[in-house]
Amino acid sequence: RLADQISGIFVPIVLGIAVLTFFIWYLWVAPGDFAEAISKFIAVLVIACPCALGLATPTSIMAGSGRAA
How far is it, in rounded angstroms, from Cα 3 to Cα 67? Predict the structure, then answer.
């Protein structure tokens, strides 16, 4: 339950930061350079994913083991 609560907060925040990063790069840092902005957007998601996977993997293993037992 704790992992679900954390993921429920963590995922929207990470997506918001990624979208904010995209718009900052697209509008101010490198105006009109879509490829650079999308690259930064993906970089934020890739860096944040291991944290989400670190929470979700043990939770899914425990849930599967509990159902199997």
Answer: 18
Give pLDDT tens digits for 27-68.
999 999 999 999 999 889 888 876 666 666 677 777 888 888
Residue 56 in contact with residue 5, Cβ under 8 Å?
no
Residue 4 or residue 55, greater confidence: 4
Give the DSSP per-residue string, 10-62: HHHHHHHHHHHHHHHIIIIISTT-HHHHHHHHHHHHHHHHHHHHHHHHHHHHH
Question: CA-CA distance, 11 to 15, in Å (whole number)?
Answer: 6
DSSP letter at 69 equals -
Assess contact for 50 and 14: CB atoms under 8 A: no
